[in-house]
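re: that chain from earlier
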Amino acid sequence: MRKLSYLIILAGVLIMLYPKGSEWYEDRQQQKLLEEAEQAYSEIVPSATAPASQDLSKPYAEVTQLLAEESGAEEPVPTTAPEIEVGGKITAIIEIDKIDLKLPVLEGATKTNMKHAAAHMKETAPIGAVGNAAIAAHRSRTAGRLFNRLDEVGKGDAITVITSGQEYKYVVYDVSIVEPTDISVLKGKDDDKILTLITCDPLVNPTHRLIIHAKLT
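^ sequence. v structure.
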């Protein structure tokens, strides 16, 4: 009987520790990606022109659906950290000093890529090019993780994106909360070089999307 009681207590402790263990693992993977990004600038060669015009409805719908899913809830916590397997190459590093954010950006907004990093929608303009370059990331419930604090960013704030040895400085000009189906957030504007950041809102049980629009200075 005493042995059974110990097993029940141990199971309870493991259940309580699971979220922290999962978070630790994801943070470790994110840090590995950052280190890889900082060492691989010479291999990153972004396109200088925007992709051909296409219907963004389907890819945007897929991205907003991924954002609505709670990241990491069903993933087991590995006992050792394996090699990172992501579907997209490291495209950039995004930094927002105001919210102490520094994240690797992977090419392609897939479930795997967005697990540990921000992701550039490959269907949108390349970073630094004319058009609208969209980057999406989960709104983690843990303070400071991924785009958790993105709601603190406002007009006039600076966003830095580093890619291929180049540093792009964007300034926020618009913040909005929209329906998940509002694809107008991906529109370009004349010859402007726009950066759009996308995440969920509110933090818990999200029904909308928080959109940050910034323009290259």
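The first helix runs from residue 2 to 39.
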